[in-house]
Amino acid sequence: MLSIIYGIASSLTWGAGDFAGGLASRKVGAYRAVLYADFFGLLILAVASFFYRESFPSGTVALNSFIGGALGSMGLLVLYYSLSVGQMSVAAPVSALFAALLPVVYAALTEGLPTPIQFIGFVLALAAVWLISQGDGGFHVSKLSDLKFPVLAGFGFGCYFIFIHNAVSDPEALFWPMVFSRAAGTLLVFAIVLARREPLHVPRDAWGVVLVNAALDLGGNFFFILASKAGRLDISAILSSLYPGATVILAWLLLKEKISKTQAVGIALAFLAIYFFTV
User: Quick check: 94 and 150 in contact, CB under 8 A?
Assistant: First the structure.
């Protein structure tokens, strides 16, 4: 049950973070929004280090965390690129589906098959992720190459789930995996921003949403780690992957954006999936 609660908390926090990230992207650009989320998240962790004492991790924990953070940030950058070249109706659902499906397959191979009830929950949750992410734009693939970048983005997200799960399988690992994964993401995105020669200045009116985005994104990672430590990887990852639902609902409540019929069905399936995980 703890894994389910933390997984839901992760999806809600990440969903709110994506909403804030979308607002930050409008003010400073997508790549810089990702950089600031990673960098200020790292600063938050630096402050937290004075209050949370944890022994330095083993090389295996550090390596898994670093690789997971780099792959997760790579997935986000590839997703933004895919969206920028006009594949929005393809990029969002395909990347979200692969991000959720990859940990499910990995967990089946390493932790054994889920129970029949859990399997039904997985199917419903995967369908929910697909429908919520798809929105009302429809899904149109003119050629297989359209799937190249969305699949790569989903692969990066899914690998993040797997590598971080492996890192926190050490009972004592909690704080340092977040530090190493955040450091990897910061370095990677900083290199991309420098290569693109984007200015690093943050407009005064953007500071609030940038810092909120950083805190929420870090919170989503924190709750996923707790979920992963408390239970199976597949349940933790698939519940955390329901974050588009929170983003859609916040956009509806605060920005008055419409929820399409497809997204409404997806949100309903998400609640049904959560029910199957709790019975």
Answer: yes
Q: Cα(197)–Cα(195) distance, rounded to whole angstroms?
A: 5
Global pTM reads: 0.87
Nearest to 151 by CA among 262, 220, 74: 74
For 202, the 3-state DSSP assignment is: coil
**How would DSSP label each residue in 132-199?**
HHHTTS----SSGGGGHHHHHHHHHHHHHHHHHHHHTTSTT-SHHHHHHHHHHHHHHHHHHHHHTT--
- SS3 of residue 134 by DSSP: helix
Q: Which residues 6+ apart lie within 8 Å of 260 measured at CB?
A: 135, 136
Phi-psi label, residue 138: left if phi above 0, alpha if psi -120 to 50, beta otherwise: left
- Report phi then psi at 276, rounded to 5: -65, -30
Contact in structure between 245 and 266 (CB atoms under 8 Å): yes
Question: How do residues 170-219 score in pLDDT, each as one tens digit?
Answer: 888 888 999 999 999 999 999 988 988 888 888 888 889 989 989 999 99
Per-residue pLDDT of 112-171, as tens digits, reads 888 899 889 999 988 888 888 776 555 555 555 667 788 888 899 999 999 999 999 888
Which one-letter amino acid corresponds to residue 34? Answer: V
Question: Tell me, what amino acid is at 61?
Answer: V
Provide the residue ranges of all domains of the chain, joining segments of one domain with +. Answer: 2-278
Amino acid identity, position 154: G
